[in-house]
User: Which sequence fits this backbone?
């Protein structure tokens, strides 16, 4: 049913992801899902920092905001495994993560513009 590639000597992040995915789906190893999340956050953070190199808006993001976006991107993918029993990534986990990082960084809903955020500790509004 699942045609998931396996790499006996994983050398890239994508190969590591694919091996973890196989452990989770085929072997039902829930620890693999946690490992995928942690590696996903690390790789997403690298992607975000690379985007920030050429984008002034992203350069101004605090480390906490970058970590939050990396967490959101990785969590979204993990959530797909939990919600959809037949979900798996066939070719490139890192490409899927890359697209999700782009979504987290650049997509804004119309409702987001209507919300005013207030930080009461510093009396800042945005």
Assistant:
């Amino acid at each position: 049913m699942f045609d998931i590639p396996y790499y006996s000597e994983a050398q890239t992040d994508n190969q590591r992801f694919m091996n973890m995915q196989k452990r989770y789906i085929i072997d039902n190893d829930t620890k693999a899902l946690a490992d995928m999340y942690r590696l996903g956050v690390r790789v997403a953070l690298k992607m975000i920092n690379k985007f920030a190199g050429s984008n002034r808006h992203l350069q101004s993001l605090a480390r906490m905001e970058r970590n939050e976006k990396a967490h959101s991107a990785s969590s979204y993918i993990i959530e797909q495994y939990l919600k959809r029993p037949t979900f798996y990534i066939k070719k490139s986990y890192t490409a899927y993560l890359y697209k999700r990082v782009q979504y987290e960084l650049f997509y804004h809903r119309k409702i987001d513009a209507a919300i005013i955020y207030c930080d009461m500790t510093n009396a800042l509004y945005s």
